[in-house]
Amino acid sequence: MGFLDRLFGDATDGISEAMKQQIESNLSGFSLPHMKTDLNAIKCIQDLSLKSHTLSFTLNWPYPAKSLHAEVDEKLNKLLCQIEGIDKTKINHQIKIKAHQTQPNVQALAQIKNIIAVGSGKGGVGKSTTSINLALALAEQGARVGVLDADIYGPSLPTLLGLHGKPNSEDGKSMQPMQAHGLQAMSIGFLIEEDTPMIWRGPIVTQTLTQLLKETAWDNLDYLIIDLPPGTGDVQLTLAQQIPVSGAVIVTTPQDLALIDAKKAYKMFEKVNIPVLGIIENMSTHICSNCGHEEAIFGENGGEKLAQTYGIPFLGAMPLAMAIRQQADQGKPSMVAEPDGAYANKYREISFKISAQLADAKRNYSAAFPKIVIEQS
Asked: Residue 105: left if φ>0, alpha if ψ -120 to 50, beta else—which one?
């Protein structure tokens, strides 16, 4: 019995046994862009039918990539039309993102499928701007995305998203996330005045972080991006011990000083069993706003070499450009201000690599199991 029979049963309407086997054979080895696992293994095709030599089916994407659908349509049409009896294909694309494995002994959160931590080990490398643009890229491609600002001392999310005011509470127990550009967002910056310093010790900071996460009424998120503060201290330890994280992304500049702290960030995630999905090199080159000259003022290829050293993916490089900074300060990051621009395209490509890598990872089924409660009568 082929995988089509095992998975779909009678759903392969009008397709002979020989054609089923040929379809399975032709799909063998075909993977969605940026994924390693082929279509047969991820079992994302359903509702196959053949009418008037047209093969129709639904393709469930395990990661958000709307702008890649046409490319995959063309490739699958060419591949499947090699089969006798199939002249063309009609593909219905759907995005169905699953929860993936997290560090052991940490309970899954009901309304969040995957948490991605973005860290740097060092401040001032553009991590928050990167986090927001990656979140926006994932949302643009069809995912439900939230952002949590974990920097209690220096929250930047309100500025980056151009948000003002305080979150509402419908039940007096949980806060509704703030909304901007299709993202759900939460930050301590929404709860305090802009010029109020947070003069708190570590235990209060970590308690505040868990409250912001667990007392926010997140609405069925595929991904929650957590923008971490610099360092490898209390917040990061809380993240490892109490928050189910599917993977981490490290942001660095190519400068040696930043790379030293990026190494520490990698080692920290490694020790707490959080897989590192890759490294982003920010401020890779400086682009002059007057003449367009590009220069590697912080050094060259530092992030890429670091990724090679630890055997993890190099996700991409972003330039140091005035437009990126100006757009972020105005509350309209590059993905919003210029969605068809060169910088948005870079963020979009990085988001594909991150989400596709998670789609290749093991599933987390813990949230699917019912809770057993014993009550005394």
From this structure: left
pLDDT tens for residues 94-135?
A: 999 999 989 888 889 989 999 999 998 888 898 999 999 999
Q: What is the mean pLDDT of residues 233-260?
A: 89
Say what the alpha-carbon torsion angle 23, 24, 25, 26 is, to the nearest 10 degrees. Answer: 50
Beta pairing class for 247-252 and 276-281? parallel
Give the β-pairing of 88-95 and 54-61: parallel
pLDDT tens, 32-75? Answer: 999 999 888 888 999 999 999 999 999 999 999 999 999 999 99
* Confidence bin at 349 (pLDDT 50/70/90): very high
Q: Which amino acid is at 360?
A: D
Residue with tokens 């359903």: 46
Asked if the model's pLDDT at residue 374 lies above 60, the reply is no
